[in-house]
C-alpha cells in the first residue's frame, strides 16, 4: 500500500523529494493513491509536506501531426515559391490534407500576400513558433499561459491542472505505522478508555447544515395573494389569538349550540382559563335574540340559547372566528366616527 511505502521510506530516509517521482519509482497511481494518502497523513500530523500545483499539457492528434510536419501556416508558406507566385488551386493541391483555415494565418502574419487568385511570398524566412511550442510540450517542458491558451483555442493540446507534494518529511507524530485510533464512543471503548487512543475531534466545527424544507406551492400562492392585497392598502387580520371563546368561535357565526362540532370529541375546551374575561354585552344580546327567535331575514333556531355555552373557552377551530371579531371591531369604529 502507498501509506506503508511512504512511512517505511521516511523511516530510513530524510525526505521524499517529489511525490510524482516517488509514485513512478514504486509503481503507484499518483493522483488516486499517493496524493490521497499524503492528505490523510498530513491530517494526522504523521508527515509534513509542501503542496504544489501546475498545469500539464498533452498533444491532441492534430497537435502531434503539426509537431512532426510543422504548423499549417508554415506549410503554406513553404509551398509558395521563393520567386514568383502560385495559384490558390495549385496551393490546395500541394498541401492536401494539411490545407485548412489556419493555413491562412500565413497571410495574417504578413508572410504571404494574395493578389487576385495568386499567392506570393512577402518574406523569405519564417520561424515556426507553433511547432516549437508543440515540441516543447512533447519533451515535457513548460510553456507560458498565453501560449497554452492559443494552442487550446486551436484544439492542438489539452491541459489539466495537477497537484503534487514536495519535501515530504516526518511529522511531529510520525510513526512507521499509523496508530489505530478509536472513533466511536461504544460501551467497550468507554470501559477501556485508558488503554485506547481516540481520534481528535474539533468540537467547534460546524455540523452539516439542516435542510429546512421548502414552502408548499399553495403557501407560495397564498403569500403572493396576500402581498397583492397589502400593496393595495389592505391590512392582514391578526391570527395569533389561539384561545377563543365559544361565543366568537361558534355563536357569533350563528352555529347552533346543539351542533355536533361543539361536542368535546370535536373541540378542545380549556379548564384554565375556562371563560373569557369579557364579551360585548350589547352584541351578545343581539346574537342571542337571533339564535332564539330570528331576525335580519333569519327565522332563528327557536330554542333556548345558553350563555354558559357561549362562555366556554376553547382552542380556536378556525380563523373565521377572527373575521367575526374583526367585523365587530370595524363596525364599532364606523359608529364612533
Automatic annotation (TrEMBL):
<dbReference type="InterPro" id="IPR045864">
    <property type="entry name" value="aa-tRNA-synth_II/BPL/LPL"/>
</dbReference>
<dbReference type="InterPro" id="IPR002319">
    <property type="entry name" value="Phenylalanyl-tRNA_Synthase"/>
</dbReference>
<feature type="domain" description="Phenylalanyl-tRNA synthetase">
    <location>
        <begin position="201"/>
        <end position="327"/>
    </location>
</feature>
<protein>
    <recommendedName>
        <fullName>Phenylalanyl-tRNA synthetase domain-containing protein</fullName>
    </recommendedName>
</protein>
<dbReference type="GO" id="GO:0005524">
    <property type="term" value="F:ATP binding"/>
</dbReference>
<dbReference type="GO" id="GO:0004826">
    <property type="term" value="F:phenylalanine-tRNA ligase activity"/>
</dbReference>
<dbReference type="InterPro" id="IPR040725">
    <property type="entry name" value="PheRS_DBD3"/>
</dbReference>
<keyword id="KW-0030">Aminoacyl-tRNA synthetase</keyword>
<dbReference type="Pfam" id="PF01409">
    <property type="entry name" value="tRNA-synt_2d"/>
</dbReference>
<dbReference type="GO" id="GO:0000049">
    <property type="term" value="F:tRNA binding"/>
</dbReference>
<keyword id="KW-0067">ATP-binding</keyword>
<keyword id="KW-0436">Ligase</keyword>
<keyword id="KW-0547">Nucleotide-binding</keyword>
<dbReference type="Pfam" id="PF18553">
    <property type="entry name" value="PheRS_DBD3"/>
</dbReference>
<dbReference type="GO" id="GO:0009328">
    <property type="term" value="C:phenylalanine-tRNA ligase complex"/>
</dbReference>
<dbReference type="GO" id="GO:0006432">
    <property type="term" value="P:phenylalanyl-tRNA aminoacylation"/>
</dbReference>
<dbReference type="GO" id="GO:0005829">
    <property type="term" value="C:cytosol"/>
</dbReference>
<feature type="domain" description="PheRS DNA binding">
    <location>
        <begin position="71"/>
        <end position="126"/>
    </location>
</feature>
<keyword id="KW-0648">Protein biosynthesis</keyword>
Amino acid at each position: 500500500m502507498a501509506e506503508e511505502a511512504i512511512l517505511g521510506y521516511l523511516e530510513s530516509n530524510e525526505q521524499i523529494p517529489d511525490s510524482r517521482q516517488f509514485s513512478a519509482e514504486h509503481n503507484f497511481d499518483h493522483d488516486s493513491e499517493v496524493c490521497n494518502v499524503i492528505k490523510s497523513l498530513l491530517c494526522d500530523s504523521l508527515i509534513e509536506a509542501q503542496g504544489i500545483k501546475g498545469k500539464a499539457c498533452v498533444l491532441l492528434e492534430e497537435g502531434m501531426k503539426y509537431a512532426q510536419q510543422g504548423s499549417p501556416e508554415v506549410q503554406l508558406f513553404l509551398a509558395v515559391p521563393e520567386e514568383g507566385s502560385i495559384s490558390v488551386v495549385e496551393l490546395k493541391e500541394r498541401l492536401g490534407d494539411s490545407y485548412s483555415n489556419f493555413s491562412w494565418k500565413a497571410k495574417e502574419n504578413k508572410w504571404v500576400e494574395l493578389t487576385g487568385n495568386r499567392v506570393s511570398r512577402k518574406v523569405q524566412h519564417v520561424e515556426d513558433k507553433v511547432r516549437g511550442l508543440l515540441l516543447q510540450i512533447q519533451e515535457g517542458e513548460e510553456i507560458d499561459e498565453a501560449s497554452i491558451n492559443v494552442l487550446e483555442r486551436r484544439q492542438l493540446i489539452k491541459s489539466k491542472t495537477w497537484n503534487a507534494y514536495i519535501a515530504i518529511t516526518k511529522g511531529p507524530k510520525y510513526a512507521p505505522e499509523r496508530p489505530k485510533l478509536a472513533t466511536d464512543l461504544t460501551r467497550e471503548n468507554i470501559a477501556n478508555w485508558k488503554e485506547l487512543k481516540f481520534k481528535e475531534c474539533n468540537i467547534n466545527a460546524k455540523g452539516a447544515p439542516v435542510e429546512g424544507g421548502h414552502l408548499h406551492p399553495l403557501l407560495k400562492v397564498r403569500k403572493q395573494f396576500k402581498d397583492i392585497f397589502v400593496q393595495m392598502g389592505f391590512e392582514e387580520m391578526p391570527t395569533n389569538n389561539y384561545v377563543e371563546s365559544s361565543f366568537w368561535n361558534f355563536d357569533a357565526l350563528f352555529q347552533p349550540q346543539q351542533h355536533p362540532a361543539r361536542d368535546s370529541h370535536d373541540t378542545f375546551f380549556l379548564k384554565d382559563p375556562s371563560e373569557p374575561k369579557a364579551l360585548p354585552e350589547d352584541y351578545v344580546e343581539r346574537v342571542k335574540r337571533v339564535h332564539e327567535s330570528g331576525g335580519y331575514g333569519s327565522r332563528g333556531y327557536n330554542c333556548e340559547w345558553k350563555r354558559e355555552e357561549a362562555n366556554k373557552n376553547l382552542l380556536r377551530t378556525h380563523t373565521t372566528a377572527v373575521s367575526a371579531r374583526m367585523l365587530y371591531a370595524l363596525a364599532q369604529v364606523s359608529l364612533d366616527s
